[in-house]
Design a protein that fits this description.
elongated, mainly alpha, GapR-like, 3 helices, coiled coil, UPF0335 protein DRB17_04450, GapR-like_DNA-bd, about 5% strand
Length: about 80
């Protein structure tokens, strides 16, 4: 393909095809993650808590500490403790 309107059509097509392949891989991985959560749930684990733990483990230690501190502060302000 040649340039069309100043756009390198071959290069654009390659990018689009790469994105499509990655989107397919992402969907497959999402399905795999769902299966793992379903398996954990079938074995008695609370998947909501597991998702929170996964989220916390992704966070930087300082950010996690700050979030936990603010959560405790808000809970005390709302007399939840």
């Amino acid at each position: 393909m040649a340039d069309v309107g100043g756009i390198a059509a071959d290069q654009l097509k390659q990018y689009i095809e790469r994105i499509e392949r990655l989107e397919e891989e992402k969907q497959a991985l999402t399905a795999d993650v769902r299966e793992v959560y379903a398996e954990a749930k079938a074995n008695g684990f609370d998947t909501k808590i597991m998702r929170q733990v996964v989220k916390l483990r992704k966070m930087d230690r300082d950010d996690r500490s700050e979030q936990e501190h603010l959560l405790e502060l808000y809970k005390r302000a709302l007399e939840m403790e």
